[in-house]
Write a structure and sequence with these properties.
Blueprint: H1 2-28, H2 33-58, H3 61-83, H4 92-109, H5 117-148, H6 150-158, H7 163-176, H8 180-188, H9 196-203, H10 208-238
Helix pairs in contact: 1-2, 3-4, 3-5, 4-5, 4-10, 5-7, 5-10, 6-7, 7-10, 8-10, 9-10
């Protein structure tokens, strides 16, 4: 009975929180209710699905690798949709993977992250999620800047700049704004936020110093993958590999 009561309370809280977000967003004109409700429903379905398969995934390295590939594919699709780049959307996956793959490989190689599903899935998911966010934000800012400051772009070409150089000069600073959340999170960790890796290890009985050390590694790894994501986005936009369809 106690377990059922806890589940009911959780459901009620989730419904109330979703209703608050949808209501406040609608009244303030910030976001319509439909995207909020759709995101909440998707979260429920996806977490239920993951809960059903995660045990099998965590005990098998091939399944773990497949699960990480699915994560990266979903992240690429999400970022592509958010940036509105159309058929070239798959290319944003380069920005996501360029930092995540070598960073995870390094963490495994030095033994910080064991070659086990129970470690690879959460760490890989955190890094893929961070790279996805940085890719989306930097691409949106870069493409918006290129559209809004087209006159400056044309002027740069008239002055003899090559197209890639002109694009880089325009979009580099706006794209770099995608790093602000990660930088702020790192600067304020322990004072404003207690991230999940730290809290999770403490709840699991790990020593405080070990939890803090792992959290520091995760935060710095996040900065690495996000910086690389922004750099790759800038280069993709400069080379014309990522652009919004005209018309």
């Amino acid at each position: 009975m106690i377990v059922v009561a806890d589940q009911v309370r959780i459901v009620v809280v989730c419904v109330v929180l979703t209703a608050v977000v949808a209501g406040v967003g609608r009244v303030a004109g910030v976001v319509p209710p439909r995207p909020v409700l759709r995101a909440a429903v998707r979260a429920v379905v996806q977490l239920a699905a993951v809960s059903a398969v995660i045990t099998a995934v965590l005990v098998s390295l091939p399944l773990t690798a497949a699960f990480l590939v699915v994560m990266a594919a979903v992240a690429t699709g999400t970022s592509s949709a958010r940036t509105g780049v159309g058929a070239r959307g798959a290319r944003v996956g380069l920005a996501i993977l360029a930092g995540v793959v070598p960073t995870v490989a390094l963490l495994v190689a030095v033994g910080v992250v064991p070659l086990e599903g129970i470690a690879l899935v959460p760490v890989g998911g955190i890094l893929i999620g961070g790279a996805m966010t940085a890719t989306t934000l930097s691409a949106r800012r870069a493409l918006d800047t290129l559209r809004d400051r087209n006159g400056e772009f044309e002027a740069a070409l008239a002055l003899g700049f090559t197209e890639p150089l002109a694009v880089r000069e325009l979009v580099r600073a706006p794209a770099a704004e995608a790093l602000v959340p990660a930088l702020d999170q790192t600067r304020t960790v322990g004072l404003v936020t207690l991230p999940g890796a730290f809290v999770g290890m403490l709840l699991g009985g790990a020593p405080v110093w070990q939890a803090a050390a792992l959290q520091l590694v995760v935060l710095l790894a996040l900065l690495v993958v996000e910086v690389i994501a922004v750099v790759v986005v800038v280069e993709l936009v400069a080379a014309g590999g990522v652009r919004r369809p005209v018309g």
